[in-house]
Amino acid sequence: MRNPRFRVLFSIISIIVMFTLLYDSSLAEKRSVRSMFHVYRVKLKHRRNMQELHETSSDDKGIKLMDLQVCPEFYEHEGYKNKCDYLIANPDCTSDGFFNYIKFFYCNCQNYSFLGYFVLGSWLVVLFYLLGSTASNYFCCSLETFSNLLKMSPTIAGVTLLPLGNGASDVFASIAAFMGTGSGDVGLNGVLGADVFITCIVVGVVCLSIAKKKVQIDKKCFIRDVCFLLFTISCLTLIIVIGKVTLLGAIAFLSIYVCYVVFVAFTEVWRKKGSVSKSDSFDLFLPLVGNPISDENEWDEEEQSKAPLVGPNPSDLPDSICMNNLRLPVWGWFNEEQQSKFSFSNLCWLLEMPLNVPRRLTIPIIEEDRWSKMYAIASAFLAPVLLAFLWNTRENTDPFSGKIAYFIGSGTGFILSVLASVYTKTDHPPRRFLFPWIIGGFFMSIIWFYIVADELVSLLVSLGTILGINPSMLALTILAWGNSMNDLMSNSSFAMNDSKGVQIAMSGCYAGPMFNTLIGLGVSLVLGAWSTGSEPYLVPQDAGLFLTIGFLTAGLIYALIVLPQNDMRPNKVLGIGLIVIYVVFLSIRISMAVGFGSLDSL
């Protein structure tokens, strides 16, 4: 993504696709009188067709007229000329996103389906980019500043904030799926699919890349991580088998991660109290400071406890993954020095504005190299307004309450912007009252995470409808792969450094999936159970989940057997075996989708 030509091409395509969807959005359609008359004509024609159908089939009791409020009849569109007319007459047949992708494909691209596939596919890539760049450019940096402000120990920060920064996209995609209408199985398959991919493909690639080095990893930490992950999968399996979970049960599942953090912290304190040398007690979750592969970083314990969670200059690569020990620019483009090398950097900046400016105007940033008083004042005002806008996008929102929300949001934003203007300076970020800025950046990053993740899930559901594929199958593959690319790139790069990098990579391959499962699905289950009140929350049923869990468990047990037998040295046998397990798993799932051809068959 550092190629300038690719950057310009990506930005141009992103702008075209985004404005194409905006033009076709429901907001623009509501303002179109022409579309209102078209809906009226379609409904009149449908009423005549249904009357004729009823007259010709009055003696046939086997024929049932369709319910206009549901979408199973969408494929047959009985009584309608085509699918577009059905969608126009039934506006509720949508995937609950900001854009009606199904209608866009079948109405606007009715005679040009290849154009519809191109637009939706490109928008899928853009959403993945937005999800990843929001994590690297905003969310992770808020976590880093938050860690420094609270003076968290590296161990605690490493098992809490570090996985949260790396797994934020998986977590919020899962929450968005569970909060959607009937898309909980997308969240389950997305998280579990990513777990299988990381524990098989990512671990396999790491093993193959360092097999010749014969690096030995820490046995106790490896067994600890794998056993906790197996226990987590067992508890999740029990919940899926029962088919429902209470609020107390969901909280208990979520609390497993708290137990894991406490256990890690306790073991590290115990190891430090022992007479173990610094090199032997290397913390697999400990975020290193400076160059992770240099032996010159021999800091004493006091200096290390005061060090930031990541490198001393987190803004050197503003688009890199700032919560990783090795700052990899996975989702970003260039730093400022690289941009200056190209004469058309200003053009690139202008092209990226539609994607970057909305987040920059609503997420406070107090980093030294990215500080702007103008943006700070704008974010203080526009963040509450954005929340008011999201409040009004809810279903069945009362118009009066919507106006009240905008009034409160505008008033709150005005007060905050005045305070930001008075108590900040142009040349540097605020030195005092940092906590409100950090909390604001953290909270608004979460809001943008949810917006993008919710749209991503809606697009996957729409693509599943268009392609005739279960959306959970797309979550198991496309969503899982997209969210796991970060882990593949960062962990592989770690492993190529030295023995410490290998330990960090192997540990991250098991700590990451555990965090995504416990926090991503745990929070989703808690919110789902909370929404049902005293009644248990019905867990989405998907027969394919048991197959996914089975292969996930098989990969964990295989690694748990092979690694100790090889003296804890990752080799080609482990790597090839894990990759074969994933290939077999994916082949079975795809064959099930193709063989049965039913949306309920997976």
Protein architecture, described:
By secondary structure, this protein is mainly alpha-helical. The chain contains 21 helices and two strands. The two termini are 35 Å apart. 42% of the residues are buried.
Secondary structure layout plus pairing:
Layout: H1 4-23, H2 26-30, H3 33-56, H4 83-89, H5 101-108, H6 113-150, H7 154-166, H8 168-179, H9 184-209, H10 219-242, E1 244-245, H11 247-273, H12 301-306, H13 336-339, H14 345-360, H15 373-392, H16 399-423, H17 434-467, H18 471-495, H19 499-531, E2 537-538, H20 543-565, H21 572-596
Antiparallel strand pairs: 1-2
Succession of helices and strands: HHHHHHHHHHEHHHHHHHHHEHH
Quick one: overall form? globular
Unreliable runs, pLDDT <50, ≥5 residues? 27-70, 275-343, 596-602
Rg from Cα? 26 Å
- The order of strands across the largest sheet is 1-2
Strand content: under 5%
The major β-sheet equals:
2 strands, antiparallel
- The counted number of beta strands is 2
How would you state the average pLDDT, rounded?
A: 76
Classified in CATH, the superfamily of the domain at 115-290 and 307-371 and 428-596 is NCX, central ion-binding region
Q: What is the third-level CATH name, the topology of the domain at 115-290 and 307-371 and 428-596?
A: A middle domain of Talin 1
Q: Structural class of the secondary elements?
A: mainly alpha
CATH architect. name of the domain at 115-290 and 307-371 and 428-596: Up-down Bundle
Distance, first to last CA: 35 Å
Number of helices: 21
